[in-house]
Design goal:
This protein has a six-stranded antiparallel sheet with strand order 1-2-6-5-4-3. The protein has a five-stranded antiparallel sheet with strand order 8-7-11-10-9. Helix content is 51%, strand content 21%. The radius of gyration is 58 Å and the shape is rod-shaped. Helix 8 runs antiparallel to helix 9. The protein has five domains: 131 residues, no CATH class; 31 residues; 90 residues, Beta-Lactamase (2-Layer Sandwich), CATH 3.30.450; 70 residues, Signal transduction histidine kinase, dimerisation/phosphotransfer (DHp) domain (Helix Hairpins, Orthogonal Bundle); 152 residues, Heat Shock Protein 90. The protein has twelve helices and 18 strands. The two termini are 91 Å apart. The longest helix has 52 residues. About 1% of the residues have low confidence. A hairpin with a 2-residue loop joins strand 9 and strand 10. With 536 residues, the protein is α+β, with helices and mostly antiparallel strands.
Length: 536
């Protein structure tokens, strides 16, 4: 209890005060008693030397008794020392001359005790006054110091809250040096704190700029650090869970424990909502002591999809080439073996060989164009062209073929769609493919090519009233070699790359292409191109 109320220095001060009140009087008596006795004995000696003889004992001041040797001997004194004796159980100081006829002076010893008690009392009063003055001075200095330290306390609280905007201003001379040191410390803390904030911002920017997710945890599996990609992954993992997104998933606990135990990297795969992530668990080691684990996550969904598309692409190209190569080989062997004996049969076989070779040529050319567009090596020859003339030339190109299928191809160009910057040949290739597909799957209907401009963007619509496309096939319609209806026998002149090439050409122009369709009602392709000005 005392230790909580008083400080250590105060407790020592109280001990010293108590001990001084107890010990100092104890040392007064052995020191002062001989001195007082010597003074009293000196007075007794002077009395004896000033008087020659007395007939009866004389009582002088301060109870001093002067008597002759004979009277003194009759009282039967009991000598305790050369200076103290006892008569009738009363203790006296005494002095006598060396001869037997001299006088003897006696003084009660209690006078000496009374004076010692008075000295002790005075000493205690002096100590009390001294300690009172000392405590008053100490209290005054403490109050001054506390008042001078009030600004330091307030600023210390501000600095603890990372507020370094103000400095200590003290009016007391007691704290001048402390004020300078405190303000210097504040400036250094502010610089270091700003450096830490800058490093933290740089670290956060670097982590969030990474394509990989990063999570750092301690040995208790508490999250210390994470970036936005890692938080997105955790949000996906905890979407159907009551756990918060800043908690490590239970499925990772075993890998984390193995990493901490073996001090080796651990690699695993996680599939979440149709996406694939690869996780790398790496131990954090300092001075041969592990203090955490860093988890790096990478979304490899696109890589897997690209690998699948690459495999599908190779398979589709092989499939598309297998048929014409087989036909070329079969009909060539028929001609060489003389199976076709007549000139008409030979011409028929040669015509098939010619058509299949042209088909292979178109396939190869489409693949080369697609490769150039995808890699960015295709250079567009952009110029300003009238949109209305471009649309009417496209429609005129398909009028004959459309009339054979009893299909009407019409144009709907708004007045505000005047001039657009584009590569004429490439964009013609796009619309030729779209209109050709619409003619192939539209019987006795209408194909409309509509164009209008809105907010510096041109909107092109190719609308047909044909068979339509199933909703499940729409997301994959622009993939290479994808066939919406695999049971449908398409015209052999097609390569299966037209829509993929159209998509790349439109995107090379900075535009977008999309499709909507309803089975039995028709299909609409929408192309949006920006109105880009040409500068010399």
């Amino acid at each position: 209890m005392i230790a909580r109320v008083f400080s250590r220095r105060t407790r020592w001060f109280l001990v010293i005060v108590v001990m001084s009140f107890i010990l100092v009087p104890l040392f007064v008596e052995p020191i002062m008693a001989p001195r007082l006795a010597h003074d009293y004995l000196s007075d007794l000696r002077r009395l004896v030397e000033q008087n020659d003889a007395v007939d009866i004992p004389l009582n002088l001041n301060q109870d001093v008794v002067l008597m002759s040797q004979e009277v003194f001997n009759d009282k039967g004194p009991e000598y305790l020392s050369d200076e103290v004796l006892i008569i009738n159980e009363t203790k006296y100081l005494y002095y006598t001359a060396s001869d037997l006829t001299s006088l003897i002076a006696l003084q009660p010893y209690e006078i000496l005790d009374d004076q010692l008690i008075a000295i002790k009392t005075q000493l205690r009063l002096f100590l009390a006054f001294f300690y009172l003055v000392l405590m008053s001075v100490h209290w005054y200095n403490v109050k001054r110091m506390k008042k001078a330290l009030v600004p330091f306390r307030q600023q210390a609280l501000n600095y603890a809250m990372a507020d370094f905007s103000e400095r200590v201003v003290s009016q007391s001379s007691l704290t001048d040096e402390l004020m300078l040191s405190f303000n210097r410390m504040a400036r250094q803390l502010e610089q270091q704190f700003n450096q830490l904030l800058q490093r933290d911002d740089i670290l956060n920017h670097v982590l969030n700029a990474m394509n990989d997710g990063v999570i750092a945890i301690n040995v208790d599996h508490d999250m210390l650090l994470s970036n936005i990609h890692a938080e997105n992954l955790l949000a996906l993992l905890h979407k159907d869970s009551s756990r918060t997104t800043n908690m490590i998933p239970v499925e990772w606990e075993e890998d984390i424990s193995m990493t901490m135990k073996n001090l080796e990297n651990c690699l695993t795969y996680v599939k979440v909502q149709g996406r694939t992530f690869i996780l790398l668990f790496s131990p954090l080691i300092r001075e041969n002591h592990i203090f955490g684990v860093v988890i790096i996550s990478r979304d490899v969904t696109e890589e897997e999809n690209l690998n699948q598309l690459r495999e599908m692409f190779v398979a589709n190209v092989s499939h598309e080439l297998r048929t014409p190569i087989s036909l070329l080989q079969g009909y060539s062997e028929a001609i060489v073996d003389g199976v076709a004996t007549s000139l008409e049969d030979q011409r028929a076989l040669a015509q098939v060989i010619l058509e299949e070779s042209k088909r292979m040529g178109r396939l190869v050319n489409d693949l080369l164009d697609l490769a150039k567009l995808t890699s960015g090596h295709m250079v567009l020859q952009r110029e300003r062209y009238p949109v209305r003339d471009f649309v009417h030339r496209l429609i005129a190109k398909f009028q004959h073929k459309a009339s054979l299928n009893q299909v009407e191809v019409v144009a709907d160009v708004h007045e505000d769609a005047q001039v657009l910057t584009f590569d004429y040949d490439r964009l013609e290739q796009v619309f030729t493919n779209l209109i050709d597909n619409a003619l192939r799957y539209t019987k006795k209907g209408t194909i409309t090519l509509r164009v209008y401009k809105e907010k510096k963007r041109f909107y092109f619509y190719v609308i047909d009233t044909g068979e339509g496309i199933k909703e499940a096939d729409l997301p994959f319609l622009f993939e290479r070699f994808y066939k919406a209806d695999k049971s449908r026998t398409r015209n052999k002149s097609g390569t299966g790359l037209g829509l993929a090439i159209a998509k790349e050409i439109v995107e090379a122009h900075g535009g977008t292409i999309s499709v909507t369709s309803h089975v039995g009602k028709g299909t609409t392709f929408t192309i949006v191109l920006p109105d880009v000005e040409l500068y010399d």
